[in-house]
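Input structure tokens:
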């Protein structure tokens, strides 16, 4: 029986037929899928038979969110976060439609959901680094010198998986290394330490919706916006700061999937170029950001963070004032849909 089949939704953003699900059938079929169709809502998306799914397009987003639908990006995979809003499950796994089943060094198919669930159901260790990485894994433990007072760990909120084949590079690196492929399978899971940010990728990501879902807003990207390909980065920076504040953990490493298709580096550069400059101010902003002790939930933290974004990043570009408005609208949508549960 599939683990947590009644507690986990799989969220997939797409603009095309979902033939890729055929390879995932042995692993995904027991789970409920939430498909967020980007682009032209009149286009018919074909989903292979035998899957339990809901499919939402732009018309559905506007119908459900009304005058706040603008906070969900259009013509960008950031639209996936609408699936996080409408889910009623405790856990979310989200994947891109150009990702396939990878094999481990023994030649066995990797069950990404099984590993993500294992990551989420075992504690994280953000306060002291264990040199054997995940101490809760079979065959590992806490090493000599690890404080006994910290060995219970903390709840895990985020499980960030990796990719074989096409690495998740920015456009300048893609241009310099167009033929580079990731063939290194590192058999490890580690907790990202408290106070450390990391570049979160949305193509192989799972999280505890109850603990951190309200912070998993993928920002304003795509049509009408001055920036793209920073949707998951933004969610990663915000969620990591909030995880640290709330005392919950973020893990990265296993599981791997197979990323099959490199996006066009010249198209990517057009989307990224402002972000490449802006991130040099955005990252120090998040590194120094603190939240008040009164903010004890992800929702409260995110509302407080929105105002800090407005005050701390608004000088860079008017976009950040609009993004702060989007963050507030996102939480209003989150609260509105949560009341319907």
């Amino acid at each position: 029986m599939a683990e947590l089949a009644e507690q986990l939704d799989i969220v997939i953003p797409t603009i095309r037929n979902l033939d890729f699900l055929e390879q995932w059938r042995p692993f995904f079929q027991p789970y409920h899928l939430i498909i967020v169709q980007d682009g032209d809502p009149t286009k018919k998306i074909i989903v292979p038979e035998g899957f339990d799914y809901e499919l939402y397009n732009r018309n559905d987003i506007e119908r459900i969110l009304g005058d706040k639908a603008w906070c969900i990006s259009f013509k960008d995979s950031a639209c996936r976060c609408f699936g996080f809003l409408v889910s009623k499950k405790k856990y979310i796994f989200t994947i891109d439609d150009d990702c396939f089943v990878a094999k481990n060094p023994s030649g066995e198919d990797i069950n990404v959901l099984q590993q993500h669930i294992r990551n989420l159901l075992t504690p994280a260790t953000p306060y002291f680094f264990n040199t054997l990485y995940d101490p809760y894994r079979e065959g590992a433990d806490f090493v000599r010198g690890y404080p006994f007072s910290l060995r219970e760990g903390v709840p895990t909120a985020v499980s960030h998986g990796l990719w074989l084949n096409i690495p998740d590079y920015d456009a300048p690196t893609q241009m310099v290394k167009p033929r580079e492929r990731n063939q290194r399978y590192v058999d490890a899971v580690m907790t990202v330490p408290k106070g450390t940010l990391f570049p979160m990728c949305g193509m192989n990501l799972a999280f505890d919706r109850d603990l951190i879902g309200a912070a998993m807003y993928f920002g304003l990207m795509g049509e009408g916006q001055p920036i793209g390909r920073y949707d998951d980065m933004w969610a990663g920076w915000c969620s990591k700061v909030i995880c640290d504040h709330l005392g919950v953990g973020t893990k990265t490493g296993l599981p791997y999937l197979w990323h099959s298709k490199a996006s066009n580096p010249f198209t990517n550069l057009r989307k990224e170029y402002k972000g490449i400059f802006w991130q040099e101010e955005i990252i120090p902003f998040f590194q120094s950001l603190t939240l008040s002790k009164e903010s004890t939930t992800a929702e409260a933290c995110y509302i407080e963070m929105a105002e800090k974004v407005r005050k701390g990043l608004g000088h860079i570009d008017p976009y950040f004032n609009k993004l702060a408005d989007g963050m507030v609208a996102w939480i209003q949508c989150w609260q509105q849909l949560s009341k319907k549960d």
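The longest strand covers residues 249-259. The first helix runs from residue 21 to 28.
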